[in-house]
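Table 4 source record.
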Amino acid sequence: MLRTLVIVNPHSGGGATRRRWRALEPRVREALGAADVEQTSGARDAERLAREAVRAGVERLVVAGGDGTLAEVATGLLRAQLADYAELAVLPMGTGCDFARTLGVPRDPDAALAVLRTGKARRIDAGHARYVRSDGEPADSYFLNAASFGVSGRVVDLAHRGPRRLGGTFAFALATVRALLRYQSARVALRVDGELVFDQPVALVTAANGRQFGGGMQIAPNARLDDGWLDVVIVSTANGLQLIPKLPKLYRGTHLADPVVRAQRGRRIEADAAPGAVPLELDGEPVGALPAQIELLPGALSVVGPTA
């Protein structure tokens, strides 16, 4: 049996994970057998816990939290070049949990534990982003699901600040409407694999490894976690208010045919804009702003998902 550490983010899901974990922990231990448990104490603590655990011989990291927690764990492994020494698994307990949706891991805890017991590990792609923090300093992080900039950066900020009692889908939907009511697009020069593909005001650009973001919005319905590509989706309207009637298309994944939407694939995305004008988010967490460089890392991680 693999030596296992469960990393719990008690602050995920607006703090609901702290309460839910008390009831869930005995079932997790029953499902996984001998497993250690560590709870995060603050930002980037999951990154440290993952790195130290794998260096100490842990072979499987189970992440009880949301997309942001999972991205921190991935960052801990990839930054320290430890990704070949452990596999990841997810217990979706965060606000959006969009990566789990693409992977096929249910939100129901018992169903997710069944995937951990019977699922198989497979190699998936990841992404690496370089960007500018809010204090103007350069930074970099890894992501598993999606990197996006424009109105989405404002959306995730509002979703984390707003009420989450009615679930992640409602929280992100409400935040999206609030953000679009006031958002004015900024000019972005966008290059995909070295080619300039866009240079004008843009509402949203997503470089997607997974299919969904924002609590179930199917932003990149054709994306796959292991195909060696990022699906780049560009929404080019200048006024965010004009996008509100189009939101049902986004949830259904039928927006790619809309005249304001462009889609293509690439492995390296470079985006330039006025400093601080266009916010950037990675896996549902606001991290900074453009300019940014986003790069695909093929087959970077081993992640447990349902058997076919």
